[in-house]
Write a structure and sequence with these properties.
Blueprint lengths: L10 H30 L16 H28 L4 H23 L8 H4 L3 H21 L4
Helix pairs in contact: 1-2, 1-3, 2-3, 2-5, 3-5
InterPro entries: MAPEG, MAPEG-like_dom_sf, Membr-assoc_MAPEG
Protein name: Microsomal glutathione S-transferase
Keywords: Membrane, Transmembrane, Transmembrane helix
């Protein structure tokens, strides 16, 4: 069976929020890592600071880890939001903004050495990332359910 669909009028918002905005989010978050490299004297090719080698290894690693976490979820987020946006474009566009904003807040919290490492990533609003992520996931599941013939 062939399933035909059209792209909704608001899909351009999905492309901007879930395809373009993450690029700018990455550039912003990368800037934080580069600044931390200079501040904490962690030179390339080290991806992370090495305890015992770098004086402020843990401080740098918190900044780097916040950025790395973004990459760990970005691919899945992009796929589910672009698919879910075919049925729920405004929801997925909003989820893209929330995911990017929440990722920046996650990194800011995780980087704050005055906070306990176990909870720091959520103390400055990092949970917003997951609201966007799960909204996109729900939209993607809804899209799958609307095109799948179950019997």
């Amino acid at each position: 069976m062939v399933y035909e669909m059209s792209v909704p009028d608001q899909y351009g918002f999905v492309i901007l929020a879930c395809g373009v905005l993450p690029l700018f989010t990455n550039v912003y978050m990368s800037g934080s890592v580069m600044k931390a490299r200079d501040s904490f004297d962690v030179k390339y090719p080290n991806l992370y600071g090495v305890p015992g080698v770098h004086k402020y290894a843990d401080d740098f690693n918190r900044v780097q880890r916040g950025h790395q976490n973004y990459f760990e979820h970005l691919t899945h987020f992009t796929v589910i939001s672009l698919i879910g946006g075919l049925k729920h474009p405004l929801t997925c566009a909003a989820s893209g903004v929330l995911f990017c904003l929440g990722s920046v807040l996650y990194q800011k919290g995780y980087s704050d050495t005055s906070l306990k490492v176990e909870t720091a990533r959520y103390e400055k609003g990092g949970v917003v990332k997951w609201i966007g992520y799960f909204a996109a996931l729900g939209s993607c599941v809804s899209m799958a359910g609307s095109i799948q013939q179950w019997w």
